[in-house]
Amino acid sequence: MNVSPSPNGVIYRNILLIRTDRVGDLVLSTPAIASFRRSWPRARITAVITGYTESVLRHNPDVDELVLLPNRSPLEAIAQVARLGKSADIAVGLAPRTDDIFLAGVTKARTRIGYVYRRRYLSRALAHLALTDWCLSEADPEIADRNPEQPVLHEVHQVLALVKLAGGNALTEELTLRLGDDDVAWAAHNAPVGAVVLALAPRWFTRNFGTDAVKRLISALALVHEDVIVTYGNETETAAASLRTGLNAPNVTWLGHLALLRWAAVLAQSAVVVTVDTGATHVAAALGKPVVVIFEREYFRLCSQEWSPWRVPSAMLTKPPLGAEPGPLIDDVVAAARTLRERHGTTALS
User: Fold this and answer.
1) What mean pLDDT do residues 84-99 have?
2) Confidence of residue 141 (pLDDT cuts 50, 70, 90)
3) Architecture of the structural domain at 182-344
4) Domain-wise residue ranges, the chain
5) What is the 3-state secondary structure (H, E, C) of the chain?
6) What pLDDT, in 10s, does the model give residues 178-196?
7) pLDDT digits (tens, 9 = 90+) for 159-171
8) Do 14-166 and 182-344 have matching folds?
């Protein structure tokens, strides 16, 4: 196969990208994946991921092959990655986790790179043993709180640094999340267009907010907006059932247990997404949707920089102290959602 070098002369024919953690983190890795493609347009790019996150890359134009690791067989997963490594010129661990660093090392590819957090000493030790080179991230909650003047790099930029480390120069910072036509059609048929979407997640129900506060928030959003959609999954099914009890709001649509891309299609035709600090933030951003995101108080300085909504209109708020009245935050969320909808809300599918 005739493979063109990157602008600095580095040639890779087979690129192996590994990311085995969460949906939002894989979404934030898509600029790096696209940058590997742009830097080596004729290389074969294989992504090693999990079945849980497969749909993030299902329609991604920058990946030639998806390899799903088996859920319950670590030894089989290791053997699978080792086989892939035999033909790989470079293996890249896209997450600063011991699992991804270890798997990159297992490949025994000529070039093996990743990135680690400065204060994750086990990961750093493993990087010395498993990788040929790595980036060191300064993202750390204690450092962020101790040195507020020092900015924290967004995860998009931290992962993009791996492209540069590999020798790539053709970079893009755009998130990519492609929807299937069937997912778009399902959302158009089953969900109101232009709604405000509240994405339930376990972090809504911690002690400094809770079920009653979420119910009050949904009610307040329903008073202001023509349509509100509440989405939930397995982890929040019981909470969703509790919220629906006694909530007299006929303009609230409840959608549960949606496949990822159907859920994303619902977000794509919404006006604004309201969420806690979870993958919904990054899925919405990849679809160009305005986001209201509520962070935990602990480590707010770090999280609101490293995992802020990427290049979309947004409002970033923080939960109240433990025992404090949630009313002011509810008012702020409602006001932020209304402002974002009035200024930026669009129902066009991205």
Assistant:
1) 97
2) confident
3) 3-Layer(aba) Sandwich (3.40)
4) 14-166, 182-344
5) CCCCCCCCCCCCCEEEEECCCCHHHHHHHHHHHHHHHHHCCCCEEEEEEECCCHHHHCCCCCCCEEEEECCCCHHHHHHHHHHHHCCCCEEEECCCCHHHHHHHHHHCCCEEEEEEECCCHHHHHHHHHHCCEEEEECCCHHHHHHCCCCCCCCHHHHHHHHHHHHCCCCCCCCCCCCCCHHHHHHHHHHCCCCCEEEECCHHHHCCCCCHHHHHHHHHHHHHHCCCEEEEECHHHHHHHHHHHCCCCCCCEEEEECCCHHHHHHHHHCCCEEEEECCHHHHHHHHCCCCEEEEECCCCHHHHHHHCCCCCCCEEEEECCCCCCCCHHHHHHHHHHHHHHHHHHCCCCCC
6) 999 999 999 999 999 999 9
7) 999 999 999 999 9
8) yes
Confidence band for 10, pLDDT divided at 50, 70 and 90: confident
Domain 14-166: CATH architecture, name and number where available: 3-Layer(aba) Sandwich (3.40)
